[in-house]
Write a structure and sequence with these properties.
The structure is a single chain. The protein is an alpha+beta fold and about 60 residues long. It has one domain. It has two helices and two strands, in the order ββαα. The longest helix is centred in the middle third of the chain and has 8 residues. The two termini are about 25 Å apart. The mean pLDDT is about 80. This is Integrase.
Length: about 60
Amino acid sequence: KSSKAGKEDYGSVYARVRTGKANMKVVTGFTIKQLEWEKYRSLQYTSSALMSSIGIKYGQ
């Protein structure tokens, strides 16, 4: 979750990346509303529905 004023209900999206022998957590530069993430986690959204709800298209 963000600690910035007015952005408390947003969080950053991270990707887990494996490079060689190390696992890394990399920030993607995207933010998402906590409510959208909770819907995805509770299986109310598929991956493609989540992506379109936050404005991302496959191949971007």
